[in-house]
Specification:
Alpha-D-Glucose-1,6-Bisphosphate, Chain A, domain 4; single chain; alpha+beta
């Protein structure tokens, strides 16, 4: 009995840590995997640009083309598309705009990648928030909620915990080194 109690006490810290939230850094992006009270992914990055320029890069097709993809569609209205259209015939990423507040936030019903068909169809809620830190620095926060139970939902959560930081790192890099020259990049491949 004592031996079982001792083993249980040794395992207790691991069991307690299992259900706790986790914060990491991926590049310049702070990643928070929140498990309670409701499952959520939260990402933060500081972008070296004024809010109006970051807003332009995130809320227009022309802006998305400077950092995310060579082709994009943004219809900035509730029910409008916010889509990154990737070369090679891959399914678009993004989602449907739920709401927006100019230079403050864009809320999407976000599509997961195609390898998660149920999650892609049912969608999560992605809220991008912009906050001016100073005249040349904007904090962009992405909160993704609406996660359901099941293996596919868990797998999509893990996948996007790594994929969304790539998105936000690309946004930041656009202002560090300038817009992407897609023609030059594609000529290299």
């Amino acid at each position: 009995m004592r031996k079982l109690l001792a083993i249980g006490l040794l395992l207790l810290p691991a069991a307690l840590a299992f259900g706790q939230d986790k914060t990491t850094m991926q590049g310049a992006v702070k990643v928070n995997k929140i498990l309670t009270p409701a499952k959520e992914l939260r990402f933060e990055v500081e972008v070296p640009a004024p809010v109006d320029q970051v807003w332009q890069a995130m809320s227009t097709a022309e802006g998305l083309k400077t950092w995310l993809t060579p082709d994009a569609k943004v219809d900035l209205r509730p029910g409008g598309d916010w889509l990154a259209i990737f070369p090679g015939g891959a399914a678009p990423g993004g989602g449907t705009i739920v709401s927006f507040v100019p230079e403050k936030s864009i809320t999407l019903r976000a599509m997961a990648p195609t390898q998660f068909p149920t999650v892609r169809q049912e969608r999560t809620l992605a809220v991008f928030e912009l906050r001016r830190l100073d005249t040349n620095t904007t904090r962009v926060t992405l909160r993704q909620t609406g996660w359901k139970e099941g293996k596919e939902w868990d797998d999509a959560y893990e996948y996007l915990s790594k994929g969304n930081p790539q998105l936000l790192n690309a946004l930041r890099q656009r202002f560090v080194s300038g817009p992407i020259d897609w023609a030059a990049m594609m000529a290299k491949h």
